[in-house]
Amino acid sequence: MPDFFTLYLVVLLLNLSHCLIWGMIAYRYRDLGAARYWLAGSAASVAGGAALSFQGESGLMVFTVAGNSFVIFGFYLNWCGAKRLHGDKIEWLKVLALAGGSVLLMLATFHLWYGRNPVYTLAHSVPLWLTAVYMMQPSRRDLGAIVTGTAMIAGGLSHGIIAGGNVLIVTGLSPDLQLYRAASIDLLVFLFAGVIWNFGFLISAFDRLRTEIERLANEDELTGIANRRMFMSHLNRICGTGHDGAIFSLLLFDLDRFKGINDKHGHAAGDAALRHVAAVIARHLRQGDVFARLGGDEFSLLLPRASAAEAAVVAKRIVNAVRGMPMLWEDRPLTLTISIGITSSEGFQTDPATLLDLADRALYETKRRGRNGYAIYSAASDGAANITRLGDLSAVGSAAGT
After folding, report:
1. CA dihedral defined by 40, 41, 45, 47, rounded to 10 degrees?
2. Helix H segments across 86-227?
3. Is the separation of the CB atoms in 121 and 166 below 8 Å?
4. DSSP state of 137
5. Measured at the alpha carbon of residue 323, what is the angle toward residues 319 and 328, in degrees to the nearest 5?
6. CATH no. for 226-401
7. What angle do CA 233, 238, 239 make, to 5 degrees?
8. Closest Cα to residue 88, out of 34, 145, 151?
9. For 164-194, how does the pLDDT look when each residue is reduced to its tens digit (9 = 90+)?
10. How far apart are CA 127 and CA 113, in angstroms?
């Protein structure tokens, strides 16, 4: 069994490797703030390992307490990094109070329980358990969180066993209990757990980066709703799977006289108008509806399991909501209106390009009638209106609102 000096050197080298990894990640992904906390935590553990390797067989107070203090603070920084990763507030007063309390307890009990002090192992375990509980909550329980939480719980339990043995010795219940070999095994287990929980942090970090990339790829930067790419993905999927025989509807709409808003009030007002309309419409959607900005002032809405008549109800509600909620611009209300074109899978082949074309034809009809309303492109009762023979567009506008 290796002596503690050797084990502390292993602690030092392992944490140096963690520093190298987190340093490169923090440098490469500068928006990943959590990596800087985990880098700082590893650096603190490096300082702790270096101090502990100089404590000697007699356990000099300055090196023993300082080394453990650095390690413990590093574990609290891991907790802070986990919170930063998930966007939660870091309670620095709480962190400093817990870490400072651990230092004071170690100083107070150093001579009283020299060499057999459970305070040290318990002080190491508290930040691990706090981090494990935080990561294992249902809202954060991804693969990385499970790996991290499990490793930290294992490390904390290993330390807890040694703490329990120390208590038995100190209280006289088992004064002859020999823990030197068990303590060496505990440190090895702890080292292994440290490697695993850093690997778990790494998985969580990459999952978060992947999620952010997917969000940026599928989200409209101006309004925060889905973009054209994401909308077409949903539309292709619902058309390609045959939607289980269920009817669905497609709405296309744009802001009436949007160019006039830009010309009269400036492009900042135009952007604000788009954000305003998107926010108003989002309040009137069902769960599962796909609302997207296709580009410019053109929006789209996919309503799964909705007939043309049901889509008309939604369209009327949206038209009234937008018209009834003016946008404040330079402290003055600016009334906005939209035009909507509707089509559904009723009576048509569910081809994305065709459905978009039919909805666009209905949108054109709404504009021709004076805007600020909606029109439906529906199949004629004899089936004449379809993707191959559109007739004279008499089916367009079979329902309209103003």
Report:
1. 20
2. 92-109, 118-135, 143-171, 180-218
3. yes
4. S
5. 140
6. 3.30.70.270
7. 100
8. 34
9. 776 666 666 665 666 667 777 877 888 889 9
10. 22
Tokens of 362: 């209905």
Contact present, 222 and 275 (Cβ < 8 Å) = yes
Bridge partners (DSSP) listed for residue 298: 254, 295
How many Å apart are CA 225 and CA 200, to the nearest integer?
A: 31
Residue extents of the structural domains in the chain: 4-218, 226-401
The pair of three-digit structure tokens given for residue 110, joined into one six-digit string: 């150093």
Q: Considering only 72-81, 82-91, 361-370, 378-387, which range has the smallest mean pLDDT?
A: 378-387
Answer yes or no: are the C-beta atoms of 283 and 334 closer than 8 Å: no
Q: How far apart are CA 103 and CA 299, in angstroms?
A: 59
How many Å apart are CA 250 and CA 304, to the nearest integer?
9
Select 4-218's CATH number: 1.10.3470, 1.20.1740, 1.10.287, 1.20.1070: 1.20.1070
Tokens representing residue 320 in the block: 């009234």
SS3 state of residue 291: strand
Q: Rg of the chain's alpha carbons, rounded to an integer? A: 32
Q: CB–CB of 168/116 below 8 Å?
A: no
| Banded pLDDT at 3 (limits 50, 70, 90) | low
Place of tokens 């978060």: 208
Q: Would you say the C-alpha torsion 125, 131, 132, 137 has a positive or negative sign?
A: positive
